[in-house]
Specification:
The complex is a heterodimer of chains A (about 350) and B (about 240).
Chain A lengths: L24 H11 L1 H11 L2 H23 L4 H5 L3 H12 L6 H17 L11 H12 L1 H4 L15 H9 L11 H7 L5 H7 L11 H17 L6 H16 L12 H5 L4 H8 L10 H21 L6 H18 L19
Chain B lengths: L5 H11 L10 H6 L4 H24 L9 H23 L1 H7 L10 H9 L6 H31 L1 E2 L4 H4 L8 E2 L8 H4 L1 H27 L19
Antiparallel strand pairs in B: 1-2
Helix pairs in contact in B: 1-7, 3-4, 3-6, 3-7, 4-5, 4-6
Classes of the chains: A mainly alpha (about 350), B mainly alpha (about 240).
């Protein structure tokens, strides 16, 4: 077995490929964390300091659980911790959980994600499911009350936004923060009002996808484009997902009446669409491998997300959709295996007559 | 020739060939009703009675039944015993009967019971068969109980809640609150939680087995300090 060093020197006796990629796990993961910063910033601006406290707390738990699991499995702790992969899971969970999620909620979600979702399957690179989404779904089905308590975007009366409030809400007994439904919730529960009336009744949701949510999603979009530019992942999975959501939302829009499912723009820019498209379904481990496979994988996630939003039992469905498509990923890989270089499609049937 | 000593049958049923942990039979009731101790105990006892009774009956008629029609005959015997248990539960523990619901009639389809009837009772005399049924039922019930206790503690923070459904008013204050002011952890109460806990129980059993095996051989487990994967990146 040849050892490949992380430089340009190629040693004798090495097997192909000789061209080394720049993307080490550590670099990819650090870039991912860097790219979540605009989204995190937008969440802090619109939903208060809770998001930041949550992210830090989740990363702390993730590192702790990872160290514990590595020790139990007798693996080198420091080198595995320094590749930042577990920190990414922590950051993503911290961003996905409601800003004022109590500390034990994050603890349950993150420790489940790292220990059961990642290490029981064999550690980094072996997990069939996205660990962060496993942790998220676990707490979503276990604690529905806490998980639906999103704060109203900034600017509503009684909305507390200081760092101290966030800390006491998360780690203390919790202030009775004004919690309210997300735009997706409101649209789902609506049965009598037309869209215009609905947005008039809930003025903070006015605009394309609700104030706050719009900017958070745009910030994640920016982070995702940065990652695309740095070639951390290819465009296929995000484009597949966003295109599928756009098409589904256009087909089943049903205008602006009371049975409307919301405009395509609303679906693209609300909930966890952008976070999911660029940061979650692009996970190289649990997703499909080939480019065509990624396109199909992304489209599948998009379709399921829309189906859950429009007709399902939950207001948003990125986590469920990701897990369902994770299950399908091996099958997608099987049917989309690219031809090896230099080989042509096998000729079927009789050869052409001259 | 099978060794039919009592100790061997007991060891088989309770540990080596445990229907729940090793054979993984009867998973549907095992995962479906093990959300609390009282449910688990109720179904465990019912299953134990059915498997013991059917083993005795099958063993009694083992020379009369033709090989070709043995399975329908066994299933009818099992169904008869299940119906008896069902009627008994309806009479004495009606509330529990309502809670367990479809899982009582479903005892008929529990593979453990048909498996023991066909695999053991149809080839062995009455006494070993009865004992085998009892031990297999015990093995199943113990795991059911363990799973029920685990899920009740993690899911609701209590232990032995509403045991009066099974034991009458005497047991109405048996509830132990393990964790006061506990929020329900729905995952442990729902079936997915049962799968995870079941996996942990199987892992525990396997690791105990491996320890015992190593001790028997007089070997200490080899500890590798290194990463087992070959590193292909970073400085080497």
């Amino acid at each position: 077995m040849a050892f490949i060093s992380n430089g340009s020197s190629i040693r004798v006796g090495q097997s192909s490929p000789h061209k080394l990629g720049l993307n080490s796990t550590q670099r990819v993961m650090s870039l991912l964390i860097l790219a979540t910063l605009p989204g995190l910033l937008a969440q802090i601006v619109f939903f208060g300091w809770g998001s930041l406290v949550n992210v830090l707390w989740c990363v702390l738990i993730a590192l702790g659980c990872e160290a514990l699991a590595l020790t139990l499995r007798r693996r080198p702790v420091r080198s595995c911790l320094s590749d930042c992969s577990v920190a990414v899971a922590g950051v993503l969970l911290g961003l996905a959980l409601p800003p004022f999620a109590p500390w034990w909620l994050s603890l349950v979600a993150v420790s489940f994600a790292v220990i059961i979702g990642k290490h029981l399957y064999g550690g980094l690179g072996q997990n069939p499911f996205n660990p962060a989404m496993l942790g998220y779904v676990l707490v979503l089905i276990s604690f529905p009350q806490e998980m639906t308590a999103w704060l109203p975007p900034l600017g509503l009366e009684g909305h507390n936004n200081s760092l101290g409030d966030a800390l006491s809400a998360i780690f203390g007994q919790g202030v009775d923060a004004v919690s309210m439904a997300t735009p997706l919730d409101v649209l789902k529960e609506n049965s009598s009002l037309t869209i215009n009336e609905l947005w008039q009744a809930n003025p903070i949701f006015d605009g394309m996808a609700g104030r706050g949510w719009l900017w958070v999603n745009l910030a994640y979009l920016a982070g995702g484009l940065f990652l695309l530019w740095r070639k951390v992942f290819t465009w296929h999975a995000p484009v597949g997902m966003l295109a599928a959501i756009t098409i589904m939302a256009t087909l089943f829009w049903q205008g602006s009446g009371s049975d409307s499912h919301g405009s395509p723009m609303f679906h693209l820019l609300s909930g966890a669409t952008m976070l999911g498209a660029f940061f979650i379904i692009t996970d190289p481990v649990s997703g499909a491998t080939s480019n065509r496979g990624r396109l199909i994988f992304g489209a599948g996630v998009g379709i399921i997300v829309y189906v859950i939003r429009a007709w399902g039992g939950y207001p948003d469905g990125v986590a469920f959709a990701t897990l369902l498509m994770n299950m399908a990923a091996p099958t997608i890989d099987y049917y989309t295996q690219p031809r090896t270089y230099g080989h042509q499609r096998a000729s079927k049937g009789l050869p052409k007559k001259d | 020739m099978m060794d039919n000593s009592a100790a061997r049958i007991a060891l088989n049923g309770l540990w080596k060939n445990n229907p729940a942990l090793v054979q993984l039979l009867g998973l549907c009731p095992l995962l479906g009703v093990s959300s609390s101790v009282v449910n688990a105990l109720g179904l465990g006892l019912a299953t134990m009675l059915v498997v013991t009774g059917s083993n005795i009956a099958v063993s009694l008629i083992r020379r009369q039944v033709n090989d070709a029609i043995r399975l329908p005959v066994f299933v009818m015997i099992i169904a008869a015993f299940t119906t008896c248990i069902e009627l008994l539960m309806q009479a004495y523990t009606y509330e529990l009967y309502r809670i367990l619901g479809i899982f009582i009639p479903l005892i008929v389809t529990n593979c453990v019971i048909l498996g023991r009837a066909d695999g053991f009772a149809s080839r062995n005399p009455v006494l070993p068969s009865a004992f085998d049924g009892l031990m297999m039922g015990c093995g199943f019930a113990v795991i059911l109980l363990l799973l029920g206790a685990l899920r009740e503690v993690v899911g609701q923070g209590t232990l032995f809640a509403s045991m009066d459904l099974l034991f009458g008013p005497v047991a109405s204050d048996w509830t132990i609150t393990v964790i006061p002011n506990y929020k329900q952890f729905l995952f442990a109460i729902l079936p997915p939680g049962a799968f995870v806990f079941m996996g942990f129980l199987i892992a525990l059993k396997n690791s105990i087995d491996r320890r015992l095996e190593e001790r028997r051989r007089g070997l200490t487990p080899e500890v590798s300090k290194e990463s087992r994967r070959v590193r292909v990146t970073g400085d080497i």
